[in-house]
Specification:
The longest helix has 26 residues. It contains eleven helices and 13 strands. By secondary structure, it is α/β, with parallel strands linked by helices. The chain is about 40% helix and about 15% strand. The protein is globular and about 60 Å long. The strands form four sheets. A seven-stranded parallel β-sheet has the order 3-2-1-4-5-7-11, with helices on both faces. A two-stranded parallel ribbon has the order 6-13. The two termini are about 25 Å apart. The chain has a single domain, classed as Rossmann fold.
Length: about 300
């Protein structure tokens, strides 16, 4: 396939590009700086600027762009950054796809990043792709983010909304700071530990993205593991894999004091099931959180 990808330099994009290329796909990366090689194209999503020829003739577009949710304290300004970095990129791509579709040369599929934050705090209630949106800043953000794909969908492009949980890698994402804490004998659960954490192994995440490229799927797809666990269970599994104690919980009030509003969202319970992947027979390589953590901490890259 000829694939155009935005957000290729991020935690997930940086892993997806070589994965796709190793599978024989030709990948072109969208960059905000001047292009340095034939595999890059410059664009300006903040200004809504992307020539429709960038998507013309492509088989697929993958959009993973967006500022890191946990990178900074949630000031009013950074919350605007979280939204614009997602909505502007998505709207710019969807507009270009729609324009290319007018000549019948638009991509067949748009895989657009979203997040399980769409469901809000679900408590002990299990949710899947048929469940409604929840409440809170992240849920509201996901709704407008996903809605920005509408021009591409209206133009006849198959749109898949990748509602990602927490892919596990030792050197990135959720696991990176936790790995260090546990290695230093300072690990433990967050808050009560009763809140559900929607984990997924990184290899399964990569395979699931490729799975949605090849299948006739549209709409939301939850990218999470098949067996949800609580934060307490996750912490116990990580301690077991690393042969470390699980003794130093982070009180919820301390987390909120340290990182503000994001701390409250981090303590939300999200019992999210990968309903579409299970229904379509996706072959999970790591069905348990312990297997996923073992893979993550033993991976060489």
């Amino acid at each position: 396939m000829q694939i155009l990808i935005a957000g290729a330099s991020g935690f997930l994009g940086g892993r997806l590009v070589p994965y796709l290329r190793s599978a024989g796909h030709q990948v072109t990366q969208l960059v905000r700086r001047p292009a340095r090689n034939p595999g890059e194209l410059r664009w300006d999503p903040a200004g809504g600027l992307l020539d429709a020829t960038a998507v013309t003739g492509k088989d697929a577009v993958i959009n993973l762009a967006g500022a890191g949710v946990g990178d900074q304290r949630w000031t009013a300004q950074y919350k605007r950054t979280l939204q614009t970095s997602r909505v502007d990129t998505t709207a710019t791509l969807a507009k270009a796809i729609a324009h290319a579709g007018q000549s019948g040369q638009g991509p067949r599929v748009l895989l657009n990043s979203s997040a399980v934050g769409f469901y809000g705090d679900t408590g002990d209630r299990a949710v899947d792709e048929q469940s409604p949106a929840g409440e809170g800043f992240l849920a509201d953000l996901c709704k407008v983010w996903e809605a920005a794909t509408r021009p591409a969908e209206d133009a006849g492009t198959r749109v898949v909304l990748l509602r990602t949980g927490f892919p596990l890698a030792r050197d990135g994402g959720l696991l990176k700071p936790l790995y260090l804490q546990f290695k230093l004998f300072a690990g433990g659960r967050m808050g009560s530990g009763r809140q559900y954490l929607p984990w997924m192994s990184l290899p399964d995440w990569l395979d699931a993205v490729a799975f949605t490229l090849d299948r006739d799927l549209a709409g939301p797809v939850n990218l999470t593991g098949p067996e949800p666990v609580t934060n307490g269970e996750f912490s116990a599994a990580l301690a077991k894999v690393l042969h470390r104690p699980n003794l130093l919980p982070v009180p919820g009030i301390a987390l909120k004091a340290a990182v503000g509003e994001f701390g409250g969202e981090a303590l939300a319970s999200q019992r999210v099931l990968p309903g579409v992947l299970v229904r379509e027979g996706f072959p999970f390589a790591h069905r348990t959180v312990e297997a996923a953590l073992q893979q993550a901490v033993s991976a060489t890259t």
